[in-house]
Amino acid sequence: MMERSYLVEKLYSRVSFAVRLTDDYTSGRPAGCPKVYLQDRDVRVVKNLSGYYVFSDLAPGIYTLGVKSEYYLDEEAEVNTGDLDPKSPVVNISIRPGNAYPFPAGATLVRAVVLDSSGQPARGAGITAEIMQPESAVKARVGPGEADVGSTSIRLNHVSGSLNVGDSIMIKDSSPSRNEFCQIAPPLPANPSQAFNLFAPLKFDHNTGTPLYLMIHDNTVSTRTGERGEFAVYFKSVKSDRFPVRIEVIHPGHRVYRQEVEVFEGRLTSMGIIQLSLS
């Protein structure tokens, strides 16, 4: 009988590190098929059944990791293999949904398109959204007269401390559907007995003695614009059915844009087109 011989080559690879992507909105696995890669390196990455992107047989060193996806903002991260746990070399990256992300029905969102001074999409502009919530203590009460629908000023009684230009206040009406948010406008009254000016007219009538609460910073959400200048600010959890949010847009060479918008839980708030001006 003729003996058969076989040449068997055993191949071994060493895991350099594995990348775990997390959807910042759901805290779960990302939607779609994100691409994970190393910048300026033509290396193979393998996605395993657990959803990890595995890089193998890399020389020790510092690498720039990139993530691209149709649904998420592009992300970059620096990875120093010497800083990783050799027993579990995992790099965790949270990726933020972009404007094309399939948000579920009932998501609380603010959307807009940002253009630069020349009317072109302001790509990569920084967006911050400062969420405001009322203080627990009453700041003031509606005084006699001038708290009628359409009025751009309001007289206050029993003001605790001071109110400044730009301060946001909530008028907490006896009917919750008539609660509203206002911002103090210049000039400030010479004395507290005079009416305070408002940036926008009142939406409802309010009775004398109705309490007002100062709105203070509660949390900040940040994102940035995509290739077409679009952004979507998303709120994963909210404390009330409606609340004011201060939107700030920062883009190199342009003035900082600020606007306060009222956001409703479970609804989309559109700011339309924001045109920036040169600084």
The assigned CATH architecture of the largest domain is Sandwich
Q: Give the domain tally.
A: 2
The CATH C-level name of the largest domain is Mainly Beta
By secondary-structure content and strand pairing, the structural class works out as mainly beta
What's the short story on this structure?
With 279 residues, the protein is mainly β. The protein is built from no helices and 20 strands.
Task: Describe the protein.
- There is one protein chain.
- The mean pLDDT is 93.
- Strand 18 (242-250) and strand 19 (257-264) form a beta hairpin.
- This protein is mostly beta strands and 279 residues long.
- The strands form four sheets. Strands 9, 10, 11, 12, 13, 14, 15, 16, 18 and 19 form a ten-stranded antiparallel beta sheet that branches. Strands 3-4-1-7 form a four-stranded mixed beta sheet, with no helix packed on it.
- 0% of the residues lie in helices and 43% in strands.
- The protein has strands at residues 15-23, 35-38, 45-47, 53-56, 62-68, 75-80, 90-95, 108-115, 126-134, 140-142, 153-154, 156-157, 168-171, 180-185, 196-198, 211-224, 230-235, 242-250, 257-264, 268-275.
- It contains no helices and 20 strands.
- It folds into two domains: 15-95, Carboxypeptidase-like, regulatory domain (Immunoglobulin-like); 104-279, Immunoglobulins (Immunoglobulin-like), CATH 2.60.40.
- It is elongated and about 85 Å long.
